[in-house]
């Protein structure tokens, strides 16, 4: 029998500790706000008659201080022009007095290519208050031709900005113009206006189809004859919104009481 000394005893294996589990990060879901929606309302017209198409803003979650969009149309249901400008009117209750409306493509009308779009830029240089959800933003006079049918009012190149000038997600919803044949009843809540009889205006395809509002003579096609580059980004105008918030107010001169 061999007796081992304590120095020669076999050491016992030590247990390797289990590695600690690294806690996994918890997933916090993020909610994406609903986009701003610019919608062209549908309307019905009789043959060779005029009415107004309304453009409405839907923004249940985001505050919109300014926006832009293009409205496309066909020669059979065209937006009417006067003095080279579209007969479009911004809703006065939203207080966006610096809004502009321009026919596209650039230089269209008369002897050039027919106008197929209107670009609307809705903003104010002295008011960045949000446009209320569900508001009619603007409306435009449309004139039907001599052909019955259904024609699209397209809404594209939509953009929106908040009071700080931050771009907001936005989409467009197109509308429909239903031109009804003689004898069909019009089923629309849109007010139909009588065609004025002052200066004649012609449809984008060259045929006479509308009249001016009496403010002056119209261009040969009812379309804008301008030299500006209207395909440039309209965000150049919306970018003034942050500047408006920081602009100092001009002090009014003081007058002495009783002096004239």
Main beta-sheet strand count, sense and barrel state: 7 strands, mixed
Q: What spatial form do the alpha-carbon principal axes imply? A: elongated
Chain-averaged pLDDT: 76
Low-confidence stretches: 187-236, 251-260
Report the radius of gyration as a whole number of Å: 31 Å
The amount of beta strand, in percent, is 25-35%
Strand elements, count: 18
**Alpha-beta classification:** mainly beta
Helix content: under 10%
Looking at how many chains there are and whether they match, the oligomeric state comes to single chain
Order of helices and strands: EEEEEEEEEEEEEEEEEEHH
Report how far the terminal alpha carbons are from each other: 133 Å
Q: Could you give the topology of this structure?
A:
Layout: E1 36-40, E2 43-46, E3 50-58, E4 66-72, E5 77-79, E6 81-82, E7 85-86, E8 88-90, E9 100-104, E10 117-122, E11 136-144, E12 149-161, E13 167-168, E14 170-173, E15 175-180, E16 192-193, E17 200-202, E18 208-211, H1 235-238, H2 240-246
Parallel strand pairs: 1-14, 2-15
Antiparallel strand pairs: 1-3, 3-11, 3-16, 4-10, 4-12, 5-11, 6-7, 8-11, 9-10, 12-13, 12-15, 17-18
């Amino acid at each position: 029998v061999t007796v081992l000394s304590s120095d020669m005893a076999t050491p016992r294996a030590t247990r390797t500790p289990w590695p600690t589990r690294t806690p996994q990060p918890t997933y916090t879901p993020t909610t994406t706000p609903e986009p701003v929606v610019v919608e062209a309302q549908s309307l019905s017209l009789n043959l060779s008659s005029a009415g107004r198409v309304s453009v409405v803003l839907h923004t249940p979650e985001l505050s919109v201080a300014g926006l832009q969009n293009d409205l496309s149309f066909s020669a059979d249901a065209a937006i009417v022009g006067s003095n080279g400008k579209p007969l479009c009117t911004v809703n006065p209750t939203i207080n966006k007095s610096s809004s502009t409306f321009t026919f596209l493509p650039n230089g269209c009308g008369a002897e050039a290519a027919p106008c197929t779009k209107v670009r609307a830029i809705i903003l104010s240089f002295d008011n960045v208050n949000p446009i209320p959800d569900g508001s009619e933003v603007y409306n435009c006079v449309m004139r039907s031709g001599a052909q019955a049918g259904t024609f699209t009012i397209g809404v594209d190149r939509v953009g929106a900005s908040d009071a700080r000038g931050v771009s907001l997600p936005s989409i467009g919803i197109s509308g429909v113009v239903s031109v009804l044949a003689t004898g069909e009843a019009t089923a629309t809540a849109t007010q139909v206006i009588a065609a004025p009889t002052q200066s004649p205006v012609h449809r984008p395809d060259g045929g006479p189809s509308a009249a001016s509002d009496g403010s002056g003579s119209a261009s040969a096609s009812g379309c804008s004859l301008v030299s500006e580059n209207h395909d440039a980004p309209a965000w150049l105008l919306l970018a003034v919104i942050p500047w408006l918030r920081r602009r100092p107010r001009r002090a009014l001169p003081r007058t002495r009481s009783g002096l004239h």
